[in-house]
Structures are given as structure tokens and as C-alpha cells.
Amino acid sequence: MIVKSAEFICSNTQISKLPLPLKPEYAFIGRSNVGKSSLINMLTEKKGLAKTSQTPGKTQLINHFLINDTWYIVDLPGYGYAKISKSKKEDWNKFIRSYLDKRESLQTVFVLIDSRLEPQKIDVEFCNWLGEKGLSFVLAFTKADKQSAVKTDQNIAKFRKALLASFEEVPPFFITSSENHIGRDEILGFISQVNQNFEVPDISHLQ
Ligand SMILES: Nc1nc2c(ncn2[C@@H]2O[C@H](COP(=O)(O)OP(=O)(O)OP(=O)(O)O)[C@@H](O)[C@H]2O)c(=O)[nH]1
Ligand SMILES: [Mg+2]
């Protein structure tokens, strides 16, 4: 897929204010600082499109970006950021989980995992929750430029094994680096295929 256009549409804290679910949508989620916003900028080849930061907790809202006028990428706040209060974490949880659970046009959740780390409980638990809800997801292992390919492969194998404790089959995965564009063609190719099967949901209940 060639990305001809990528534009910021809106930021939201209210699910009722999201764009109508008439286009296929892909949500990017993962721990704070894992590289969600950077990956979105890499895929769209627009550096400042999604705000990135070295400080975790940069993305605080549900951000919609429209690609080629046909599909949305959604940048979500990271989970597991230690420095926010418990009540804020709970608010985040409720809000994001209800978005993921209810968004009719959501095609696939991209769960971003830091490829440098051994399986983290919070990531495995989040995948388990997606599985319980029957939500379709794929894994994107980020920051692969930061260590050897062997190390990346080892961590991926460990993560897949951790998922096999609760899943019969592990979802597809992508190895990515926003620094050197690894994984770009693969992810865009995947999205392009899923887009082909999109059926516009009946939204009469929303109007
Ligand atoms: N070397 C390298 N650094 C990366 C990569 N992806 C992200 N980073 C860096 O990691 C930091 C966090 O990136 P963000 O894209 O802001 O992460 P995020 O997941 O959107 O973070 P929050 O919005 O705070 O949850 C930034 O300093 C990025 O430059 C990558 O593929 N390689
Ligand atoms: Mg971000």
C-alpha cells in the first residue's frame, strides 16, 4: 500500500464524540513509551503526525488519523505508566476498554511489545483480555534496532510461549523499528488486506 495522505482528524475523551464508525479502524496500544506514536509516524512517513516523547505518558487521548481518506489509525494512551495516580489508571482502563469493546469499525488491535524485554505480565494480561472479549489482535514488537536480531527472536519466542498458556493459537506478529523502517511494508500489506473485507456497520442506532 502507498500512503498518499495521512491527516489528524480529532482527539477525544468521549466515546460519543468519535468519528462515525464508517471506515475500517486499527488501534495501536501498548505500554507507555513502547513506541506507538513513533510507529504511526513511521507507517505514514509523517514525522510529527502523532506526538512522541521520551517521557512516558505523552499520548493522553484517543487520536484518530485518516489515511488515504479510507481508513483510520488510532493512537491510544499507553498503559502501565507508574507515575499516574491509581484513580487515573482506573479511568484510563474503563475508557480505553470500553472503546475497544464497543467500536464497531475496529478491525484489528495492534498490541505493541518492546522487543528488548522478556514477557511482561501487563502485556500478557492485556492480550488475554482482548482474547476474552473476542477482539482480533496482532503483535508488533518495537525498537528492534536496539539489539541483535537473535535477541529479538528470543524475546518474541518467549512472548509467544507466554500467550500459549491461554491461547490455542498465537496471533500474527510483526518485527518493527521506527528508526529504520523495519516492518512497514508488512504492516501496511496486512492492513490493506483486512480493508478489503470491511463491511460498513449499520449505524442507525447511533443517529
Ligand atoms: N531506537 C528506537 N527508538 C524508538 C523506536 N520507537 C520509539 N522510539 C523512542 O521511544 C520513545 C517513546 O516513543 P513514543 O512513540 O512516544 O512512545 P508511545 O508508546 O507513543 O508513548 P506514550 O504515548 O507515552 O504512551 C521516544 O523517545 C522514541 O524516539 C524505535 O523503533 N527505535
Ligand atoms: Mg504516544
Question: Briefly, what is this?
Answer:
This protein is an alpha/beta fold. The chain has five helices and seven strands; from the N terminus they run ββαββαβαβαβα.
Describe the structure.
The chain has a seven-stranded mixed sheet, sandwiched between helices. It is built from five helices and seven strands. The longest helix has 17 residues. The mean pLDDT is 93. The termini are far apart. The protein is globular and about 50 Å long. It is an alpha/beta fold. The protein has a single domain, classed as P-loop containing nucleotide triphosphate hydrolases (Rossmann fold), CATH 3.40.50. Belongs to the TRAFAC class TrmE-Era-EngA-EngB-Septin-like GTPase superfamily. EngB GTPase family. It comes from Mucilaginibacter gynuensis. Keywords: Cell cycle, Cell division, GTP-binding, Magnesium, Metal-binding, Nucleotide-binding, Septation.
Strand-and-helix sequence, N→C? EEHEEHEHEHEH
Structural class: alpha/beta
Straight-line N-to-C gap:
33 Å
Give the CATH superfamily.
P-loop containing nucleotide triphosphate hydrolases
Average per-residue pLDDT, rounded, comes to 93
Count of the domains: 1
| Total strand segments | 7
Spatial arrangement of strands, main beta sheet: 1-3-4-2-5-6-7
- Provide a count of the helices: 5
Which distinct ligands sit in these coordinates? guanosine-5'-triphosphate, magnesium ion
Low-confidence segments, ≥5 residues, pLDDT <50? none
Portion in beta strands: 15-25%
CATH class designation: Alpha Beta
Regarding quaternary structure, what we see is single chain
Please state the CA-atom Rg, rounded to the nearest Å.
Answer: 16 Å
Percent helix? 25-40%
The CATH topology is given as Rossmann fold
- Estimate the global geometry from the Cα principal axes: globular
CATH architecture: 3-Layer(aba) Sandwich
